[in-house]
Amino acid sequence: MNRRSPFFTGLLAAAGVAVTIAVVEVVLAASDVLLLIGIAFSLAVGLEPLTARLTRRMPRALSAAVVVVTGLAVLGGAVAAAAVPLTDQATRLRDLALLREPGSLPAQANEAFGLEAAIRSIHVADVAKPLAAVLGDTLIVVVPATYFAADFPRVRTALDRLTPRTRRPRVILIGDAVFRKVGAYLVGNVVVSLIAGVATFAWLWAFGVPYPLVLAALVAVLDLVPVAGSVAAGAGTSLVALTVSTPVGLATAGFFAGYRLLEDYVLLPKIVGRAVRVPALVTVVAVLLGFELLGAFVAVPVAAAVLLVVREVAVHRLDRT
Questions:
Q1: Where are the beta strands (DSSP E) in 186-315?
Q2: Which one of 21, 48, 61, 270 has the fewest CB atoms closer than 10 angstroms to its CB?
Q3: For residue 202, what pLDDT band results from cuts at 50, 70 and 90?
Q4: Which residues neighbour 39 within 8 Å (Cβ) at sequence distance 6 or greater?
Q5: Considering only CA atoms, which of 152, 144, 166, 185 is closest in space to residue 46?
Q6: Which DSSP helix (H) or strand (E) runs through 209?
């Protein structure tokens, strides 16, 4: 057991590698849950100004619950309001008459790819599984977000105490700036979603698509959920537009595809990037990397935080040397 022997040194090195691999495996296995917890913390930070204002009139736990429940009520109300028109239009599409119109594009696609057989093979369980997964992820986000919002001052104090006492004042100042950027990102994201709702309403109203206001509200609310929300809203709205005519349905799908590109590469860099004071190029790169690494919802706030730390710490030290 001589600590200087090559055997003991190799044994410690092998044990260190094994522990490192085990830690990496655990992080990768829990990466999805860790990402959802990160989203929950980002929501709590973004809702902190509103929660703090309500805390002046009621206990903090109650104010956090009111803020979270109100947000869920808005989301649930939009989905419930859109459920009736979507169900009505889905009933009209059930017979799949559009896929059997002679010479139409859907009929040609049906002959080439067997769309009718594929659609009829879809069972309730095929839809219920992803829906249950979405509801489960939503629950994982909502519950920690509520606790983070209720205990945010203590969470913030605990994070600050992880730094040395001599550097704590500067860390607190940088932390305040980072939290402000997260809140500004959420506000900018709401503005982008409102633009999506207004653009959708104008398009649907111009082409005579049923329930334009309800569908536009659904698009605006779901657009708050990066990538998946806007895709689901666009797909559902395109199906409703398909009941008007095949060209209108295809044009609506093209509209949402084009707007998706416009939002990712123009609106987000200009509006959200300006809100968090991040250059447009950094915003675009953060969104692109976020799809693969972090999730689009937290990509821009993380980029803003990293850029702020680099400016205030690394660049500051380089300027002094």
A1: none
A2: 21
A3: very high
A4: 141, 145, 295, 297, 298
A5: 185
A6: none
pLDDT value of position 255: 92
Average pLDDT over residues 205-211: 86
Q: Tokens 């190029």, residue?
A: 281
Q: What gap in Å lies between CA 58 and CA 260, rounded to an integer? A: 41
Sign of CA dihedral 259, 260, 264, 268: positive
What torsion, rounded to 10 degrees, do the Cα atoms 33, 37, 43, 45 define?
-160
- For the segment 292-317, the average pLDDT, to the nearest whole number, is 64
Pairwise CA distance, residues 96 & 310, whole Å: 57
Give the closest residue to 156 by CA, choosing from 284, 276, 60: 60
pLDDT digits (tens, 9 = 90+) for 116-172: 565 556 555 555 676 677 677 777 888 888 888 888 888 888 888 888 888 788 878
Measured between alpha carbons, how far is 283 from 294 in angstroms, rounded to an integer? 14
75-92: burial string, b at 16+ Cβ within 10 Å, e else:
beebeebbeebbeebeee
Q: How does pLDDT run across 82-115, given as a tens digit for each residue?
A: 666 666 655 655 555 555 666 555 565 556 555 5
Q: Which amino acid is at 97?
A: A
> Which pLDDT value is given to residue 312?
65
**What is the maximum alpha-carbon separation in the chain?**
86
- Cα–Cα distance, 300 to 263 (Å, whole number): 14
Q: How many CA atoms are closer than 13 Å to the CA of 34, on its beta-carbon side?
A: 8
SS3 319: helix
CA angle 41, 259, 70 (to 5 degrees): 35
